[in-house]
Specification:
Layout: E1 2-5, E2 12-17, E3 20-26, H1 45-58, H2 75-84, E4 93-94, H3 95-101, H4 109-117, E5 130-131, H5 144-158
Helix pairs in contact: 2-4, 3-4
Length: about 160
Amino acid sequence: MWTVTESPVGPLRVVEHDGAITAIEFSPFRTGDGRPRGERADDHPVLAAAVRQLGEYFAGERRDFDLPLAPMGSPWQRAVWDQLLKVGYGDTASYGEIAARLGKSNAASRAVGTANGANPIPIVIPCHRVIGANGTLTGYAGGVERKQILLGLEQDALF
């Protein structure tokens, strides 16, 4: 099941399966990509909670999400996504730092970037908080402009 909510980064499609969030998608929404979505269900409890918490996040009232998550990915991707959840609100980490947290050398930075880009639950699993080693806003699956907006929202809420 899925729903759509408005946000400062454009419409977001939130997808639920078996009682857990499996995706948050930026518009324009893809169709025919093989991902199960089912019917639209704006009143589904998990989707309603996700929409409420996303609204609180965008309003600067929420720093941590409390949602059941079930991202689909390889063991490596899930390990990277688990590390992303440890990058705090308003903080950033480099791809190399994430690699080091996983016991890998800086050479694994590219693999971290690839896993980061495949994150199916952006914002809640905060892949926008990963930046280049020199502090630049390197690629983001939702576009660098969205990444900049998300980081700016978090910085504005801190001060």
